[in-house]
TrEMBL record:
GO biological process: response to antibiotic
Keyword Isomerase carried by entry: no
GO cellular component: plasma membrane
Topology in the lipid bilayer: Multi-pass membrane protein
Annotated localization: Cell membrane
PANTHER family recorded: ACTINORHODIN TRANSPORTER-RELATED, MAJOR FACILITATOR SUPERFAMILY MULTIDRUG TRANSPORTER MFSC
Name this protein carries in UniProt: MFS transporter
Annotated Major facilitator superfamily (MFS) profile domain residues: 1-458
Record-level Gene Ontology MF annotations: transmembrane transporter activity
Organism the protein comes from: Streptomyces cinnamoneus (Streptoverticillium cinnamoneum)
Pfam name, any one: MFS_1
Length: 481
């Protein structure tokens, strides 16, 4: 529970401190992207491998190793005085989180009998929700208070006492467990997948500041070849020992293939929105971290309410129509936000943002909570663990891609000349609306892909076999909030 809390707080706490980080250590806009993008990419790359390491070498051992690394990386983030060192520490944080997080639900399954797990999952959902909701507010307060003159650094240093407590409790109370028939590691597959994505994201993120050089375009084109080599290797790995990083046969299930597309596109939309939103409020409008953090409360409440209602009441009755309604509502909220931002300009107030944020939050809540189970509803039970692991990875990968696209959809539209002339609010407002049009377009793609999802998911069909599916659903809905 401590690990889940720490992970979610760290995911949600950073965005609110971005402008303070930029002012304090002179981070460029692309560096700000990498602070979140590096974490998401490292986390995505290591999730499946982290789960397998726990199955092979012991979940308690890998869990404690991951928590130790995460705590150490948090300290390195907190003391970093250089933008590049901060990005490196964030990548280390993401990689160690990928060791720690997959063990949580696996340890629950190994520790508790089936009839007791419902209570534990209820506690898990509450703790994860608390971590996600408290992250932005905690980040705003710690940044605003400027404790001991440390500026933004306490948002990372706060993990140290929590991490030490988790390590002590884990060593004392968690018993060791392994999978009786664990899948083998696929380090070559992980290297190819990570390399291919990095070849795409690095020039995409840095290209604007470097003037979009030729090597960047060649690198992005080369990423297609590397990812094609990854697919070929995964087929070879399946024939060789049946332990590929990605079970390609899953994509023969039409609804699952479309669902992966939904997860990826939805992650892209969220990655773009949350970063440009905080930059718009704090740098563009000049709001304090606390004011910006409090502005998001209606959004968080709306997500939480809609997520609960969608799973318990709506999805069992209306199926995928609930998710489609969520995509429409979220896109409507985005369009309303675009209109309000243009209409009120630099004088827009937090209460005027409440309506579009509530509409967006309701839409997101209708999507995130039931999405994982809907996507794997038609996947054979024996592949549900692999499917849910791939879904969680795709969510994080989409987020990283969205953060990379911020260079194109936001910073390319940012008129730095107007900023230099003292019109930052207008310049950031224009760039924010341009980015939001992209978010609306991606949500349109999400809606189109949803037509390939099952009309009604069979309750608990594939998810019953995979703890990761429940972990992904709870974590993703909380992360959205």
């Amino acid at each position: 529970m401590t690990a889940s809390f720490m992970d979610l707080v760290d995911v949600t706490i950073v965005n609110i401190a971005m402008p303070s980080i930029r002012d304090d250590i002179g981070a460029s806009f692309s560096t700000l992207q990498w602070i979140t993008e590096g974490y998401a990419l490292a986390f995505a790359a290591g999730l499946i491998t982290g789960g397998r390491l726990g199955d092979i070498y012991g979940r308690r051992r890998i869990f404690l190793l991951g928590m130790s690394g995460f705590t150490l990386a948090s300290m390195l983030c907190g003391i970093a005085g250089d933008p590049q060192l901060l990005v490196a520490a964030r990548v280390l944080q993401g990689a160690t989180a990928a060791l720690m997080v997959p063990q949580v639900l696996a340890i629950v399954h190994a520790t508790f009998p089936a009839h007791e797990r419902g209570k534990v999952f209820g506690m898990f959902g509450a703790v994860v929700g608390l971590g996600a909701v408290s992250g932005p507010i905690l980040g705003a307060l710690l940044t605003q208070w400027n404790l001991f003159g440390l500026e933004w650094r306490p948002i990372f240093l706060v993990n140290l006492p929590v991490g030490v407590a988790g390590l002590l409790l884990g060593r004392k109370y968690i018993s060791e467990s392994r999978a009786p028939q664990a899948l083998k590691l696929d380090l070559v597959g992980m290297a190819l997948a990570t390399g291919g994505v990095l070849m795409l994201l690095y020039p995409l993120t840095q290209g604007r500041e470097l003037g979009w050089p030729l090597w960047g375009h060649l690198c992005m084109a080369g990423s297609v070849l590397v990812l094609a080599a990854f697919v070929a290797y995964e087929r070879h790995k399946s024939r060789k020992d049946g332990s590929p990083l990605v079970e390609l046969s899953l994509f023969k299930v039409k609804s699952f293939a479309a669902g992966i597309g939904v997860e990826l596109a939805f992650g892209i939309a969220c990655g773009i929105f949350f970063l440009i939103w905080t930059l718009y409020m704090q740098i563009g409008l000049g709001w304090s971290p606390l004011r910006a953090g409090l502005t998001g409360i209606p959004f968080s409440i709306a997500v939480s309410v809609a997520a609960g209602v969608s799973v318990q009441k709506l999805v069992p009755r209306f199926g995928r129509k609930v998710l489609q309604a969520g995509a429409l509502a979220m896109a409507s909220g985005v369009l309303l936000y675009i209109w309000e931002s243009g209409h009120y300009g630099k004088d827009i107030a937090p209460w005027q943002m409440a309506l579009p944020l509530v509409v967006m939050g309701l839409g997101m809540g209708l999507i995130v909570a039931p999405l994982t189970e809907t996507v794997i509803a038609e996947v054979p039970r024996e592949h549900s663990g692999s499917a849910s692991g791939l879904i969680n990875t795709t969510q994080q990968l989409g987020n990283a891609m969205g953060l990379g696209l911020v260079s194109v959809v936001f910073f390319d539209a940012l008129d730095e000349g107007r900023m230099a002339r003292g019109h930052a609010a207008e310049a950031f407002g224009d760039a924010f609306r341009n980015g939001m049009w992209w978010v609306a377009g991606v949500l349109g793609a999400v809606l189109a892909l949803m037509f390939a999802l099952p009309r009604k998911a069979k309750a608990g069909a594939a998810a019953a076999e995979g703890a990761d599916a429940e972990a992904g659903t709870a974590r993703e809905s909380a992360a959205a909030a």
